Amino acid sequence: MYVLGIRDGGAGGDTVERVVDQTVDRLSERGRVGVVRYDATIADGTQVRKSMGGDVTYELGADGDWTASGTGLTVGDAIDRLVTDCAYAIVVGVSGLRYPSIVVGPGVDGSSVEIDPDEDVIATVETPSELADVPLVQRLESAEPHETLESIVARVKRSPSADRAGAIATFTGRVRGKDSADDARTQYLEFEKYEGIADERMAALEADLEARHGVFDVELHHRTGVVADGEDIVFVVVLAGHREEAFRTVEDGINRLKDEVPLFKKEVTVEDEFWVHDRP
After folding, report:
1. 2-141 fold
2. Mean pLDDT, the chain, whole residue set
3. pLDDT in the model for residue 48
4. 94 touches 8 (CB < 8 A)
5. In terms of DSSP bridges, do strands 88-92 and 2-8 run parallel, antiparallel, or are they unpaired?
């Protein structure tokens, strides 16, 4: 699922809503769209406003409540709920997302919109009509998709060979806070990939593993960019006829991914930061 942020750069709520509606219309031509709408003024679940378009909409307040039901949801939780059923998600009203975004300007009092240098802004628009000139789908789908273990498992279950499969085995790698009790705590890892080559190697590895007897589908996914302490980094999912082939292929898959796919890791602890491949 591809995630797009839309935030107000000073244009006002009505203009932002019209930009969201047009974006939903464009993306809906290609797949199911979910909307996560955050409003810091919603603090107790009582201010429910008109939901924007989309197949699924979550309206979140400052306390993390989903106003439609009152159950606690963060923005991240809402995105994770959409990922198994939607091709796209639009997150409205949140700055600093790790996903591409559109800023609806101009800034306050007509000043220029302030953009964080780390923010991946696809476009800054002042009116909904300007969206027509934005290569929205191309830019959005060139970014890394949002994946979870659940979304990948759901996808392999839809494999044409699923009726022959009796096993799904998975591996999830996550950011470890420390190796031992005396280590400085890891705050986050940052991953970069060798553009083009890493994707080719990953696809070739998936194809090689799928060629094994009794293995029907293999999906490998490794996040890039900043991954915080406790977050998931990498997934290996194998659909196979029996557990023996599934377990063996999962183990080989993660081992070969680490050996064959050119990914570079920087570790940032509370005391230091370093690229792991530079360490002896």
Report:
1. Rossmann fold (3.40.50)
2. 85
3. 36
4. no
5. parallel
Indicate the DSSP class of residue 139. Answer: H
Give the domain 149-278 fold.
Aldehyde Oxidoreductase; domain 3 (3.90.1170)
Q: What is the DSSP letter of 52?
A: P
Give CB contacts under 8 A, 24+ apart, made by 130-137: 131/19, 131/22, 131/23, 131/26, 131/102, 134/102, 136/4, 136/23, 136/26, 136/27, 137/26, 137/27, 137/30
CA-closest candidate to residue 136, choices 92, 90, 98: 90
Cα–Cα distance between 162 and 131 in angstroms, integer?
41
What CA–CA distance (Å, rounded) separates 52 from 36? 9
Q: Pull the structure tokens for residue 164.
A: 């022959």
- Whether residue 53 is predicted with pLDDT greater than 50 in this model: the reply is no
Q: How many CB atoms lie within 10 A of CB 65?
A: 19
Domain chopping of the chain, boundaries? 2-141, 149-278
pLDDT, tens digit (0-9, with 9 covering 90-100), for 186-236 = 999 999 998 889 999 999 999 999 999 999 999 999 999 999 999 999 999
Contact 245, 167 (CB under 8 A): yes
What type of residue is 70?
G
pLDDT over 90 at 76, yes or no: no
What integer is the mean pLDDT of 97-125?
77
